[in-house]
Amino acid sequence: MRPDTPAENVDHTAEAARLERTAGLYPEDAETLLLRAAAHLELSGDRPAATALYDRLLSSADGLDNPALVRALKASNLWEYGHEAEARAIIEGIRTTAPRDPAPWVIVAEALESHDELEAAAETFGEAADLLLPHSPEEPPPATHPLLYGRHRVRRMLGLPHDDRDTLADTLHTSPVSLDELHDPKRVWSLGSDNPAELAAEISRLRAELGAYREALSRPFPVAILHWPAPELSELLSAYPTLSSEYPSHTDHLSTIESSLRELSASGTPNLGIVTGTVPSYEAFAASEGTSPTDPTLLPQYATTLAARGRAVAWPPGRGAGCWCGTGEQYGECHGIR
Q: What InterPro entries does the record tag this protein with (predicted)?
C-alpha cells in the first residue's frame, strides 16, 4: 500500500496477505512486516486472525527485536473482542517488566484509557515517564512524545493540576490548537450545542486533532541514503570491484552521506533517513530484480526497498543520540559537527 492511498480504498485483508507473503521473502524483516499485517487485520475486523499473527511472532524461534511491543498490541487487540482478563494479565506483565521502549507503555495505557480505566491509565503513563524520563529533559526523544501527550490527556480528563511534565508536553505540541483545548473533557458537550460559534470552534479543534493523528499514522517512506559499514563495504568492493567508482573510500562514503542529507534538508525535503546495507541482502535484492550487483543504478533502488521495509533510521539523530555511522560517539561530536 502506498502511503498516500486513501484509507477507504484499502482492502485490509488483501494488504495483510501481501505483507505476510513479503515477510516470507524477507525473514529478517518479518517482525515489522507481520506487525503491519496484524494492524490491517484489526482494521478489517478480523481480530482473532490478528491475535494469531501476534502469537506467531511471540512463538518465533529466532526471537524478536521488541517482544514487549508485540505483547502490548496483542493485549489491546484481545480486549477489543472480549478477552479482557487475558488482556489485563498481559498489561500487568508489561508494567512489571518495565520495557525501555515507550511504545508498549503507550499502547497498554491507551487500552486502559479506551475502556474507561482512567486512573490505571494515568498510573501506567506515570510509571513510564518515571522510568524513561526521570529528569524531564528539555528535549526528550521524539519516541517519548506520545507518552507525554497521552499522560497529559488522561490527567486532564481526571481533572489533575498541571505539573512539569504536562508543561513539557504543551511545549512539544506543535498543533495550532493547544493540548489543553484538545484534551478538555468539556469539549464533548460542545458537540450538542445549538450555538453556531461553539460548533465552529469544536470543528476547528477536531480538524487540528485529526491532522495530528494523520501525521502520526501516515508514516511516509523516508528519503533514504544507503550506508555501508566498513566491513560490509570492504566485502562489497572485493566481490564487485567495479563499484569502487561509487565508493572511493569508506571515509568519503560517510562524508557523502552526511553532505547529501544536509543538502536535501536545506532544499526542504522532509522525512530523511539512513538505511544500512549488507552484502548478502544486496545480492538477494539483485537476484530478485534479475540484475547484476555490479549495476550502480541498483544501489538507490536497494536503499528505497530497505526503507519501504521499515529499515530506515531517521536523520538527523536527536540531541545526545549516537552517530548514525556506528562509531559509538554522539552525533554532535562526530558527523554532526558543523
A: TPR-like_helical_dom_sf
Three cell numbers, residue 33: 512486516
List, in order, residues 6 or more apart from 117 with CB less than 8 Å away.
Answer: none
Three-class SS state of 313: strand
Residue 316: asked if its preceding bond is cis (omega within 30°), the reply is: yes
Supply φ then ψ for residue 223, to 5 degrees: -75, 110
151 close to 165: Cβ distance less than 8 angstroms = yes
Model confidence over 224-281: pLDDT tens digits?
Answer: 899 999 999 999 999 999 999 999 999 999 999 999 999 988 888 877 889 999 998 8
Task: Find cell 570492504 and name the residue.
Answer: 234
Residue with cell 479543534: 205
Instruction: Please state, as a whole number, how many other Cβ atoms lie within 10 Å of the Cβ of residue 287.
Output: 11
Using CA atoms in the order 110, 128, 105, 158, what is the torsion angle rounded to 10 degrees?
A: -10
Q: What is the tens place of the pLDDT at every residue in 57-85?
A: 999 867 888 999 999 999 999 999 999 99
Q: Read off the C-alpha cell for 321.
A: 543520540
Residues 6+ apart with CB under 8 A from 335: 254, 257, 258, 323, 324, 325
